[in-house]
Amino acid sequence: MSGAALGLEIVFVFFLALFLLHRYGDFKKQHRLVIIATLLAWYLCFLIVFILPLDVSTTIYNRCKLAVNSSPAESNGSYVTVAPSTQKCFKPWSYIPNGIMPIFWRVVYWTSQFLTWILLPFMQSYARSGGFSITGKIKTALIENAIYYGTYLLIFGAFLIYVAVNPNFNLQWNQLQTIGIAAANTWGLFLLVLLLGYGLVEIPRSHWNGAKRGYLLMKTYFKAAKLMTEKADAEENLEDIMEEVRKVSESIKYNHPLRKCVDTILRKCPTEYQERMGRNMDDYEDFDERQNSYPSEKSLVKLHKQVIYSVQRHRRTQVQWQILLEQAFYLEDVAKNEASATRQFVHTFHSQEPENKIIQYFYTPTVEWYWECLLRPWFYRVLAVVLATFSVVVVWSECTFFSTKPVLSLFAVFIQLAEKTYNYIYIEMACFLTIFFLSICVYSTVFRIRVFNYYYLASHHQTDAYSLLFSGMLFCRLTPPLCLNFLGLTHMDATISHKNTQPTAYTSIMGSMRVLSFIADGFYIYYPMLVVILCIATYFSLGTRCLNLLGFQQFMGDSEMTSDLIDEGKELIRREKRKRQRQEEGENRRREWKERYGNRDDSTRNRVVHTDQKESTFSETNTNRPLTKYTRSNGRTERDRIELLQDAEPLDFNADSINDDPLESDSGR
């Protein structure tokens, strides 16, 4: 089993990152380099989280083996004795041989740092560029990142000059490397505490509120009102951009040098606008530079960028609106079925997507009713209590992990108790649950936050390239300080435990933080205590209230604006529901008509075709007869038809009396 656990987790994490990226990104429409770079960033960050518990168990085994093999004098001098010399160390099932983990962590860490500080910022500017060629996009990306890269180079250069001039500093390359790592981790820890303080409170509270009857439905109404406003704004913005594109397309003709740029812009437009502009074009007119003023290439680049943004936003709001409608209809069905006596879940509308037969076989209407109306609220309450307990333990440990005598961090207590009995499975499970919960609190906040329309992770393949790359940057900057914080909570970091023990392979590549004592003994220890203040602020929704005062409508139960938006959203959902019902009724009537009269129409159609064939055969037969007979018989038939038409008279329905037999009305004639 040596190294097998490492290989299995590497494969599992890859497919996990691929699944999440497929949910948020669009493999068909987005550039392959964007997909590969984002997948690599997500994969490396998730890999660190999943592999770190194996590093902890391997380190504990190495400490035990070193303590057993060393003499008492050496164990009291070089290393702290972890186990008595008479006790045998048991190798964990997931043991990783020496020399593999340091190389693995070094490759993973420096690759993620290269992505977050150099490659991904450049690709962000490249993806948002409106250039028409690769060279133009690269030039735009370099110009936009010149200030970004120049600032870091200036700070690093000033630091190197200061170290070279000052004789008191004799820094080597390893120490410079440690300073760079410490600077990156300090920036990440600053953002980590902000996101962690929000997630520790919001995740348990969201599950608790999800168990309340009607809460999710009211919040869905609120989202519907806000999304309709955004949807209307996106449609209006798209119309304005398409009008500019139409004017540019009409002014620049087929033989203009910039016509290729216009064609590139037109290909990015929706299909209906392309057809409309294609009908209004007249490509047979030559352009005249003296009579008309044509847009420059710079203005076309700007227009191209606006088209990409407006089309992406319009498509995203349309998809989100349909998803929100389905969610609102389902929540209304849940509210209706709660009082059902039959205890079978009845849907107002049938699912538009084909359901899996296996799921449909087990997830029957009765099972669905018991889950949605009875079990799910209690399950959410229990889950919220468990998550709240984890949050309390994390907050307590963040405030007390610097205390080594006595050990107050609960995570450190759990790991040390398991270390005495060498229960490696318990150690790995405890480490995995701890770091997994911390990662969920941090990463879920990254997926939830929205910076206007510049950064927004939208599910169902609606996230743009800029947001995907930005999320990869955040993950790569947050994961290393998150892992260091976890090692500090469990006292596996020698900087926190103040023990001269063998460090983990992960902390060994970080170097000794004693080079910067004010960061190792000050910022890393006392700054995480701010998570208490952030948790209190999140619990009382101070950030939500501030955004609401600034004009950004947020869901608040005691706000009049929230009540108005809920009523507006309820009316919008009701209107869409009536529209959907009329559509389904029309489809049902057409289906019933086709089922009832479809065979009859087919038989009638066949009879008509058969009659036409007989008439055509009869006419062909008559053509071989003498013309006089055909003319005489045809003339007699026409005379009889003319006499009948002359004798017929219209009925007078306004008369005082109407005879039963219309022929008797003209009996006098």
UniProtKB/TrEMBL annotation:
Q: Where is the composition biased (Acidic residues)?
A: 658-669
Q: Which GO terms describe its cellular component?
A: membrane
Span-the-membrane segments of this chain are 6-21, 33-52, 103-126, 146-165, 177-201, 378-396, 425-446, 466-489, 523-542
Which InterPro entries does this one have? GPCR-associated_LMBR1, LMBR1-like_membr_prot
Look up and give the membrane topology term.
Answer: Multi-pass membrane protein
Q: An example of a Gene Ontology BP annotation on this entry?
A: adrenergic receptor signaling pathway
Q: Which residues form a coiled coil?
A: 224-251
* Region span, Disordered: 576-669
Q: Where is the composition biased (Polar residues)?
A: 618-634
Q: Where in the cell is it found?
A: Membrane
What highest taxon heads this organism's lineage? Answer: Eukaryota
Extent of Basic and acidic residues compositional bias: 582-617, 635-644
Presence of keyword Zinc: no
Indicate yes or no for the key word Electron transport: no
Q: What is its main location?
A: membrane
Ordered alphabetically, the record's keywords are: Coiled coil, Membrane, Transmembrane, Transmembrane helix
Can you tell me which family this protein belongs to? Belongs to the LIMR family.
Matches recorded under PANTHER family: G-PROTEIN COUPLED RECEPTOR-ASSOCIATED PROTEIN LMBRD2
Name used for this protein in its record? LMBD2 protein
Which organism is the protein's source?
A: Ardeotis kori
